[in-house]
Amino acid sequence: MKVTYAGVAALAAGAVAAPSNTVPRKAAAACSSPVTLDANTNVFKTRKLHANTFYRSEVEAAVQQISDSSLKTQASKVADVGSFLWLDNIANIAKFDPAVADLPCDEILGLVIYDLPGRDCAAKASNGELKYNELSRYKTEYIDPIVAKLKANPNSAFALLIEPDSLPNLVTNADLQTCKDSKNAYEEGVAYALKSLNLPNVVMYIDAGHGGWLGWDANLKPGAEGIAKVYKNAGSPKQVRGYATNIAGWNSWDQSPGEFAGASDAKYNSCQNEKTYVTKFSEALRTAGFPNHAIVDTGRNAVTGLRSEWGNWCNVNGAGFGVRPTADTGLELADAFVWGKPGGESDGTSDSSAVRYDSFCGKADAYKPSPEAGEWNQPYFEMLLKNANPKF
Fold this sequence. Notes:
The chain is of the alpha/beta class. The protein has helices at 53-63, 69-78, 96-101, 135-151, 166-172, 177-196, 217-233, 274-288, 378-386; strands at residues 48-49, 85-87, 107-113, 157-162, 202-207, 240-245, 293-297, 334-338. Strands 1, 2, 3, 4, 5, 6, 7 and 8 form an eight-stranded parallel beta sheet that branches.
């Protein structure tokens, strides 16, 4: 068995303001009546992933820095791509209001819920603001305010991606003291989030790493059982649709043979691409008693063969924008390809003297220089654009 983990970019590019009081928003084309999402169906079949205002503003600023007219035209189109908005600290909850203000009725706003106590216990670049013993703050200062804002916007639809990296870390990095310290807060925190966010206008997907993480043969069963345990502890909320894979990741959807199929330990992992992982992990989840449909991040996975090993997650050099968000995946178990990670925002700094420096961001296959996690990296954005497949 191989134990591997992937870090996910943590902090969005700075808080915009302190969270405001909850005030119902009147979206430009909001639905005329309360939205009820049926989590037994694929909501992405009827609702387009919204191109949120925060990423749009980042891309529009990036366009202004490009002198090549052809590349500039291509870059401007990225602003129209739907992507998930990361509410990755308490202050960034303030991003919710402007993001929902222009949300049309036939679109769905994707939000990443990502601020667990002791967050990302196996990585430095994406550590969070809350200590492992601050579960009460997570509940009252983070989850509860988000719940209030969702309730104040009943005429809008939301897709929530719940806590990247958390439950997978409890499977593969359980020997680390930081993950041991965080275990109870992770399990109770995620359960609290699922129970509290179980609203009629919300559909939820719990993060489940990727094929190079929980896809190892020895990790499939414990990974599924760990997620199912927390879901059941939350009372099996009906708005949980399934799970998310490859968030901020690089794995191919259906490359065969897989990127690491020739590795010496490949025989221990039958999930050599995300399509196989979704198929196998969905079966393990069904057995464990958990809803088993998936969304898959294709935001930066257009180019493969770039990493020296599967666990390398930071700012992979040579990467490109992948397939745009769509519900046309070719696999019933996969609800949609989504852009979970906003391409252009750094995964972590390459400055080895920085407090949040993670050695994965200094590896040979990581792009350098790179700024702190969540900060904009203009050259990297342009690289993603040039290497995009399909092209813009």
